[in-house]
Amino acid sequence: MPDMVSIGQPQQRQFNPYSENGGTILAIAGANFSVIAGDTRQSEGYNIQTRYAPKVFRLTDKAVLAVNGFAADGSMFVKKVKQRLEWYRHAHAKDMPLRAIARLIQTMLYSRRFFPYYVYNILGGIEEDGSGAVYSFDPVGSYERESCRAAGAAQSLVQPFLDNQIYFKNQRPPPGTSNPTHLPLHEVLSLVIDSFTSATERHIEVGDGLEIFVVLAKGSTTQGLENFANVQEMTQTREGERMFNIRRNLKRD
Amino acid sequence: MDHFPTNWGRPRNDAFDAYGTYPIAQRPYNGLKDAFAEGVQHTQQPIVTGTSVLAIKYKDGVMMAADNLASYGSLARFKDVQRLHPVGTNTVVGAGGDMSDFQYIQSLLDGLMIEEFTEQDGHSLGPAEIHEYLSQVMYGRRSQINPLWNALLVGGFKEGKRFLAYVDLLGTTYSASTLATGYGAYIAQPLLRKAVEGNEDKLTEEEAMQILEANLKVLYYRDARSLNKFQIAKITAAGVSITESKSMDTTWSFAEGIRGYGSQTQ
Amino acid sequence: MFRNTYDSDNTVFSPQGRLHQVEYALEAVKQGSAAVGLRSKTHSILLALKRSSGELASYQQKMFRIDDHVGIAIAGLTSDARVLSNFMRQQAMSSKMVFNRPIPVNRLVSSIADKAQVNTQEYGRRPYGVGFLVIGQDQSGPHLYEFSPSGSAYEYYAMSIGARSQSAKTYLEKYYESFDDCSLEELITHGLHALRETLQQDKALNVNNTSIGILGPASQHETSVPSGGGFRILEGEILQPFLDTMVPKETSAAPATTSSDDDVQMQE
């Protein structure tokens, strides 16, 4: 960015191949489910480019990927991941397991170590052992499995809230009890919705719409999911994991 | 994300474009400067540029508008340039930014449509396919750090469906019922949203035309790189039609009394 | 087949105007076990007979998924088929990458036909030793194509390739006019009847030696079908309900699904 002093002198403009398109994503793993969510606003600077640009994508019946950062890199990255999964399907006649997708993503990100995809990825879904899982990545591929993660514009607002509500950080359990290791689905969904409504209030780049994906492990019940409005089942096969999509409005200002 | 806490919550310093010479404003960059920046020869900057393109969805399809000016910096260099390009029978591509890059894109698209036509098998490229193709071209070029310096709108109507989407020199894409590039994104977009959002299925052709002309007028009053000579394209079930160049009546007498507009020196 | 003067180089015509190497390649297709393809207004299907080299060996793969909207059955050299099907998958994926559009089926088939043609004309190459039946679905509905090593590709209502495929063809020629309005189950029954014709005397179709590839909405016997009725291959136990619909050979002259007895001559 040239400073005001340099006006009048010939200036070199460098093409900056990156931009930052705002928004926030979030994923929480339960014992036998996983919830992955993102807002749908896409912005650049103070401009809202569109109020609906999805950041969360279904990869397989048991894996969902949320991408945040530079939108062009994001959509290209998702496209490439989907291609690799298609080749895996051709070769093995089944979907790639979640932990393998996680390692695939790390390899794909690191292969662009010196011209990175400017994208923060969060992968959510069900592991082969039936447990809910969340993997989070940095733009060059460092990753780990976690119980919950927020990324993007309002990461600094949401993550501390999750640390407190999911990991019970700075909370002491009532005498004689202990904090639960996993929360039930309806509580997780409330936390997700609250996170985004609050982030919308406090961050200009968050808002417009909320898109939540829920993946349920094989054989688990819907756990009160049917009580939510705008729930749509996206499951492709009748046996196995089930996937749902919930859409809600967020404030548009 | 900017990890430097003292930058948090501060206004972005993205407003710098002192002479408004470039229709695409400098993008926000709050990070560190590349230490080797001095040693690298950079690709380019736009030379002959077009300003805003506007587009909206309406009842029968999509309508798009752009003026006929191609500027050379602050010089109004070419005043009869068509910035709306029909592609096949269902699509129009409108461009702001570098006009030579846009001409290259036009030749790419024309070649593509000829190839598709020669297949003669009943399949054709619609607006969605053309937008995807352009996104790949634009993103591919930005990845070679050799961008096509444009912001493009792709509008179309095929098989009963309206299509309207954006792609720019970074490969960034999005879609909405109203879109505007360049200064239009700042000045016209709020007005377009107010007029169109929620009314996409109600607006008639006349109303859509009125909305776009009103916005072009606003832009002509405020954007120094715009021209009161423009064309409007509509894409409906009947195909593509682009108007002849036309202009609107404007009033400048009020300027006399306003410092900065008139001839006052003080 | 006899050796003669003009058969060692595929770029040399015989005095009769024939390319012997290309014709030998067509023979290679006939060595492979049979595959049958049929098409209705709503579905296109493939059926193939899998061979195994012995009791202890597994059955050879006869079908490949190319994309959600395209699948193939092969007869001939499996290794050549893998090369070509890989190429088809790449083409399909590049269409998705560049235009976000499923590749039109006719273009996909033409692309491999063009590849095969090059091998019949250029010095130092050999033709592919494999034939395909390709089923696909696009804006213009379901399709069935035959691809052969000579570099030709034609569209059909019904077709068979591979060993003893003429017997299957005879069956198909008899009934093809009724296929258009068939349900998926009826279409599969016809396909199985046609495929059965290619078997040797003492053999029968069973869940181990049969593959069925389907494009179009799910059948009542299927459980997990990709949304939109994308290509899937049925193998193993799930085939039993379909095999059960076959009319035993002796009486199969008038199968339950159709009453047409007319012998209709189909263009070769």
From TrEMBL, chain A:
GO biological process: proteolysis involved in protein catabolic process
InterPro entries named among the record's database cross-references: Ntn_hydrolases_N (IPR029055), Proteasome_bsu_CS (IPR016050), Proteasome_sua/b (IPR001353), Proteasome_suB-type (IPR023333)
Pfam families: Proteasome
Main location: cytoplasm
Keywords for this protein: Cytoplasm, Nucleus, Proteasome
Subcellular location: Cytoplasm; Nucleus
Gene3D superfamilies hit by this protein: Glutamine Phosphoribosylpyrophosphate, subunit 1, domain 1
Gene Ontology CC: cytoplasm; nucleus; proteasome core complex, beta-subunit complex
Entry function: Component of the proteasome, a multicatalytic proteinase complex which is characterized by its ability to cleave peptides with Arg, Phe, Tyr, Leu, and Glu adjacent to the leaving group at neutral or slightly basic pH. The proteasome has an ATP-dependent proteolytic activity.
Protein family membership: Belongs to the peptidase T1B family.
Subunit structure: Component of the proteasome complex. The 26S proteasome consists of a 20S proteasome core and two 19S regulatory subunits. The 20S proteasome core is composed of 28 subunits that are arranged in four stacked rings, resulting in a barrel-shaped structure. The two end rings are each formed by seven alpha subunits, and the two central rings are each formed by seven beta subunits. The catalytic chamber with the active sites is on the inside of the barrel.
Protein's recorded name: Proteasome subunit beta
UniProt organism field: Marasmius oreades
UniProtKB/TrEMBL annotation, chain B:
Pfam families noted in UniProt: Proteasome (PF00227)
SUPFAM superfamilies: N-terminal nucleophile aminohydrolases (Ntn hydrolases)
Protein keywords: Cytoplasm, Nucleus, Proteasome
Record's subcellular location: Cytoplasm; Nucleus
Domain of life: Eukaryota
Nucleus in keyword set: yes
Cellular component aspect of the GO annotation: cytoplasm; nucleus; proteasome core complex, beta-subunit complex
GO biological process, one term: proteolysis involved in protein catabolic process
Signal peptide positions (record): none
InterPro entries from the UniProt entry: Ntn_hydrolases_N, Proteasome_beta4, Proteasome_bsu_CS, Proteasome_sua/b, Proteasome_suB-type
Annotated function: Non-catalytic component of the proteasome.
Protein family membership: Belongs to the peptidase T1B family.
The protein's name: Proteasome subunit beta
Organism expressing this protein natively: Marasmius oreades (fairy-ring Marasmius)
TrEMBL record, chain C:
Cellular compartment(s): Cytoplasm; Nucleus
Listed InterPro entries: Ntn_hydrolases_N, Proteasome_alpha, Proteasome_alpha-type, Proteasome_alpha1, Proteasome_asu_N, Proteasome_sua/b
Keywords recorded for this protein, A-Z: Cytoplasm, Nucleus, Proteasome
GO biological process: ubiquitin-dependent protein catabolic process
UniProt-listed Pfam families: Proteasome (PF00227), Proteasome_A_N (PF10584)
GO cellular component, one term: proteasome core complex, alpha-subunit complex
SUPFAM superfamilies xrefs: N-terminal nucleophile aminohydrolases (Ntn hydrolases)
Family per record: Belongs to the peptidase T1A family.
The protein's name in its UniProt record: Proteasome subunit alpha type
